[in-house]
Structures are given as C-alpha cells and as structure tokens.
Amino acid sequence: MEAFFVSTSLVALAEMGDKTQLLALVLAARFRKPWPIVLGIFVATLANHGLAGAVGAWVTTLLGPQVLRWILGASFIAMAIWMLIPDKLDEEETSGAPRWGVFGTTLIAFFLAEMGDKTQIATVMLAAQYHAYLAVVAGTTLGMMLANAPVVWLGERITRRVPIKAVHMVSAGIFLVLGGIALFAPVATP
Fold it and tell me: Which UniProt key words apply to this protein (predicted)?
C-alpha cells in the first residue's frame, strides 16, 4: 500500500503546473467536451505509465541493489531539481483540427506529451524502488487523474488559485527526501 500512496501523492503533486496539465487545460478550453478528454487522459496515462513501470521493474533485474540504490538516489535528487523548473506547453502539441475526434486527439497528445516527462520518469523510478509494478502504475495513474481531471472540468479557475510554485517546492522536497532514503537506507538483499 505504501507504493500506491507514495506514487499517487508524488505524481499528483509533480503534475501541478506540468505541461500535460496545461495540455488538459488547453484541450478543455478548445473542445469543451470533458468526458472524452478525461477518458483520453486516463487511457494515455495508463498506457504510458504501464510501459514506464515495466521499464522500472526490468531495470531491477539488471542492476544489483547497491548500483540501483545510487542510481535511484541520484535520480530522485535530480527530479527534485527538475521540479523547480516550470514547464511550458509547446504550441505544436495542440495545433491542428481534431482528426481523430476529441478522445483520439487527447489520447495521442497526452501519450506523446508524457514521453520523457517528470511523471513518466518518476514512474520508472518508483517501480524500481518499490518492486510493486501494479501498485505504482495504479498510483501514478490515479495521481495524474487527480491532477488533470479537475482541470478539465473547472479549467482556469483552479490554475489561478493553486500556488504552483509552492506545489513545486513541496514536490521537490518529497523527491529530495526519497533520494536521501534511497541513498542512506540499508539495502535489503533478496
């Protein structure tokens, strides 16, 4: 359960002000059809984080516990720093008419926007750290939905009231703590 709760809360915080959250806002304003947008976000996130979690689980089979601990610790600390750099939405990610309808456009746009994103990389690292693929993928997917679904329904009103800088600082702090735990906690040998 720890893997699920940590994954959910960490990704929900990390997603605040992220480019995919901005993408959700743009899609909601443009198409004004919340259900296909939310469903597209869910399916894209599930697919993307499912793959990311599989990579995280696979990495643990290649690396020993000591090497993995240093990589995870450094990665979590790097994520803490990355959280302090605000995202910007690229204009070409939302340009053009919806060829594949609102759902298809959202699915493709979100899947591509999430490639190499903070939350995808966090999913890889969490799956490697917790050795709990399903719990991590379920948690990171729920975290994405908690951060993005309200934006689709409530739009700009939320983004104006949420202090994004404070949320990024809290997220950075959590990643920093996880990095410290990964580096300095005793390594469990299987």
Answer: Membrane, Transmembrane, Transmembrane helix
